[in-house]
Amino acid sequence: MSKRPAAPSPAPLDEIDRALLAALAEDGRASVSELARQIGLSAPSTSERLRRLEAQGVIGGYTVRIDPRALGYTLQAIVRVKPLPGQLHLVEEVIRRIPEFIECDKVTGDDCFIARLYLHSIEQLDEILNKVTERAETSTAIVKSTPVARRLPPLG
Fold first, then answer.
1. Domain containing 109: what range?
2. Residue 152 — pLDDT band, cuts 50, 70, 90?
3. How many CA atoms lie within 13 A of 4 on its CB side?
4. Which of 82, 108, 134, 143 is most deeply buried (CB count within 10 A of its CB)?
5. Is residue 1 predicted with pLDDT exceeding 80?
6. pLDDT attached to residue 75
7. 75 and 33 in a common domain
8. Helix, strand, coil shares, percent, the chain, to 5
9. pLDDT tens string 5-22
10. What three-state secondary structure class fits 63?
């Protein structure tokens, strides 16, 4: 089981750093020269800022955004999971092994986990949840829309 490392001290960000991060969040494939043009610096200065932000841990990696609908996933669900007594670690392991669970947070409150999964069809929901409900109670909500997509936290 992996533990999250202690939170690093916040890195001081100036206006140019914030503009650079916003530009990368908009297009993670932008070239250094394109990023430099957008933020008003030279390409070498922009590269140096990127290296510094990576070294400080502000930029933890670069990724791709995939449209799940293009892969046939027509539904999203949010599942609240409350493990039965003594089943916490086993439930966590079950969730890790089910690839349709694309995200899961361990939380405080009545439920121990809040998870998000993608589905090809509503029929698939029971099939997936049956693997969890042997060891936990679940409560599921189907996502109708996403008015606020995943985004950067405030940078200022």
1. 68-142
2. confident
3. 5
4. 82
5. no
6. 96
7. no
8. 35, 20, 45
9. 665 667 789 999 999 999
10. coil
* Cα–Cα distance, 111 to 39 (Å, whole number): 44
Q: Which two tokens stand for residue 82?
A: 């409350």
- Rounded alpha-carbon distances, angstroms, from residue 36 to 21, 31, 117: 12, 8, 37
Give the H/E segment covering residue 151: none
Buried b (16+ CB within 10 A) or exposed e, 115-146: bebbbeeeebbeebbeebeebbebeeeeeeee
Q: Are 38 and 99 in the same domain? A: no
Q: 3-state DSSP call for residue 88?
A: helix
Between CA 49 and CA 46 the distance in angstroms is 5
Written as six digits, the tokens of 73 are 């996933």
φ, ψ of residue 13 to 5 degrees: the values are -115, 130
pLDDT for 12 equals 86
Q: Does residue 24 sit in the same domain as residue 78?
A: no
> Mean of the per-residue pLDDT values for the chain?
92
Task: Select from 100, 104, 77, 68 the least CA-distant residue to 88.
Answer: 104
Instruction: Give me 95's structure tokens.
Output: 């969730």
Give pLDDT tens digits for 41-97: 999 999 999 999 999 999 998 888 899 999 999 999 999 999 999 999 999 999 999
Q: Is residue 149 part of a domain?
A: no
Sign (positive/negative) of CA torsion 117, 122, 127, 133? positive
